[in-house]
Amino acid sequence: MREIRRALISVSDKTGLVPFAKAVQARGIDIVSTSGTAQVLREAGVDVTLIEDLTRSAEMLGGRVKTLHPAVHGGILARRHDEEDMASLQDRGIEPIDLVVVNLYPFQRLAARRDVDEVELLESIDIGGPALLRAAAKNFRDVTVVCDPDRYGFLLSELDDNGGALSITTRRELASEAFAHTAGYDLAIANWFTDATDFPERLFVELIRHTELPYGENPHQRAAYYAERGARRHVLSMVHQHAGKGVTFNNIADISAGRDILREFTLPTCVIIKHTNPCGVAMGARIEEAYAKALACDPESAFGGVVVLNRPVSQALAESLAEHFVEVLFAPAYEDGAIEVLARKPNVRILESRERRRANPGERHHRRVLGGMLVQDYDSESEDRDMMNVVTQRTPTEREWGDLTFAWRVAKHVGSNAIVVARDLATVGIGAGQMSRVDAVRIALAKARVPVDGAALASDAFFPFADGPELALEAGVRAFIQPGGAKRDDEVTVAVDEARATMVFTGRRHFRH
User: Fold this and answer.
1) Is 207-353 a domain of CATH 3.40.140.20?
2) pLDDT at position 360, please?
3) Catalytic residue (choose from 22, 245, 275, 324)
4) Which residues in the chain land under pLDDT 50?
5) 0.85 surpassed by pTM
6) What CATH class is the domain 2-193?
7) Which is it for strands 223-228 and 207-213: parallel, antiparallel or unpaired?
8) Which listed residue (138, 210, 245, 345) is catalytic?
9) Contact status, residue 295 vs residue 302, Cβ threshold 8 Å
10) Domain map of the chain by residue range?
């Protein structure tokens, strides 16, 4: 245990400062502070010793230099059990500092703004604060460090429980938080300096635990969800859960996949996800129609799936949803009566997304591999009709163009090799994640619960042979969209032409591994 007799308080974030300082002083603890914090405390009636009275040196360079002094760091770093350390303090007239309460200039918050200039941002890089935190954290066996205002209540409570002292367990825990805090702060600054480089030599990502999860991909695996600091939004940002059990590892992965697909469309759209692949996607004049069409694509696979919508859930739609086993329902809002209907199924996780911010266009996609990380741009681009090239004698009709574009945008979100068969702006068959593209075609056609006469087919990469399109043509598909670029493009085109069908090349593939 270590008794607290003297505290250094210097904070940028003044949240809870005054009541905390008053409580500290009421427990007989002396307070030393820097000018800005001291002014706030003195105006509130808290007795404070200025840091310059310790250092016998006024702050200089507009406040850039104020705590970087032996009278401060000596009092923090001195090891109480070391006779030479304590003799050094006594020789120089330095008193020990037992508690360091510091938080840093808001660099991350300012860096996220668009209206801040470089000079102002550079001035928000804290120098003395991180040094104080690191010094106190290093000497946690004798010194307590606090960098988060949320910890004030916890600290005061333990002081009361222990007669004005703090345990080594608490000091170690708070030291860990301080080192993590300064590390994240430095990462943000380093990333800002390298921001102009697409793929810098060193890449730093800070992840903050958002929530612990019941388990990982399987029940025997532990798991948690972390959000990337600095990201404009994340998969669970601004999400409110109305009912159901806690979300799981697999739920979050599926929600993310569904949200990615929804970004492709503005009209009422429903996406049903199973194991991060869509098993049904559809657009409709109303969201109820979109859901019915998406479910009809593959109702067996939709069992226990994640349903993601881009329109509010009406009571009528809730009644339809309640007729099936839905693992997660994710929507931007719920109309009167909808949640009450859905809550009849206690296992349905009912999530409402109140996030209206757009994704950061500069975000990167990270994929963990053994001993390293693959980093790439997000595949956020979708080819427009004017970028595509009709390679057959017959040009697609307007209806076919609509289905081709729809199928193409869905295909980029299906695991490769990916085949999507669509008609009337709804998927009717999806073949995902196959080692052979022709097998993906077979599966997509076999999945179709209705005739595919007149349907459109999208392939995320080129057809190496004509066998895939020939299978689809025999089934009734009459419009194809693919990147092109294979050695046998001519053979594929001839097969489509001979069937009096149509085919479009996009010039760009969309693998998703």
Assistant:
1) yes
2) 65
3) 275
4) none
5) no
6) alpha beta
7) antiparallel
8) 138
9) yes
10) 2-193, 207-353, 385-505
